[in-house]
Amino acid sequence: MLKLPMFFFAIALLTGCQTGEEALITNSTPNTVTGSAASAIAGDLASRFAEQIGSPATTTIKLDKGETEYAIALEKAFKGWGYTVTSESKTTKNERPLEVAYSIDAFDGEILARLTTPSIALARTYTQTADSATPASPLSVMRHN
Fold this sequence. Notes:
Blueprint: H1 3-15, H2 35-53, E1 60-63, H3 69-80, E2 84-86, E3 98-107, E4 110-116, E5 120-128, E6 133-135, E7 140-143
Parallel strand pairs: 1-2, 1-3
Antiparallel strand pairs: 3-4, 4-5, 5-6, 5-7
Helix pairs in contact: 2-3
């Protein structure tokens, strides 16, 4: 007999968790960051990456070739810091390059940019201005064991 009131009580609690008519709208077109904003973000993240990883003389970075302006700017920024950038899994020196994955997403007027390696992940949000992008948050550094 006690089970029936408990059932209705549970149903009453769960109905309060339902989503109304104003559901989230998903956008299937990716947001891209272009021009000087892409260069500014890539330059900032590459410099923070260099602070965390260490010497560019001993580190080769494996970066997937991208066709976006951000991917091109990121490769250029790494090279500007002295890193050797490749898209191959092995280099001529028979060493394994450090794999770096990147992502950039725009949301609510801000841009979230991330760099991830097997040992560390860096993330920061930026505000896009008319001719560049400025950091909108502190740098987030997560070390993997």
